[in-house]
Amino acid sequence: MPPFFEVAPHRGGLLDLAPRSVAPSDLIGRLLDEADRVGLTDEQIRMLLRVQRDYRAALHALDVEMALAAHEVRLTPEALAPQRQEERRVVFQRRGELFAHREIVADEAIVTVFELLTDAQAAALMAVYGEEVTATLTALAPMLVAALGPRYTLMADDGDGPREVAPDGLIPTAVPRSFTDDVQAARHLPVLR
Fold first, then answer.
1. pLDDT-based confidence at 175, cuts 50/70/90?
2. Structural domain tally of the chain?
């Protein structure tokens, strides 16, 4: 679940720029881990599990199609012949559409998850995620300071506008963006089909 549903440095292209799907492999695992803290009911948990089941099935079907398309464009001397290039481009286009559809399926599933939560539960979940992100960034502060500090000025916005932050105060003094706005925005996303 977003934001930052995985502890992975490649999210957002921070350290690894290789393109990857933003569709989470585990849609509700973190939410279920915090079921008591978020206040999920037994019925909500059952409904969330059904959403997860359908989501996994949809991703699996798309992944199978992607694999079959990759097989169609496997590299062989014959496949690279000039007369085959247009056929390959069509398959590459289809693979791109499948990749995009995978992310659309993820967005739809995430919207469904948030629709199953009350406003208070969604806010509690975002608070848990915010705490996790802050704890992770605090733990990674020495690495971030070493990577950024020598060449860049570290900035924070505490509500009075941007200001320079000393490297040793990077995490404790920086104010994370509120997740409340993200929750409200997620509730009003159009469902893409």
1. very low
2. 1
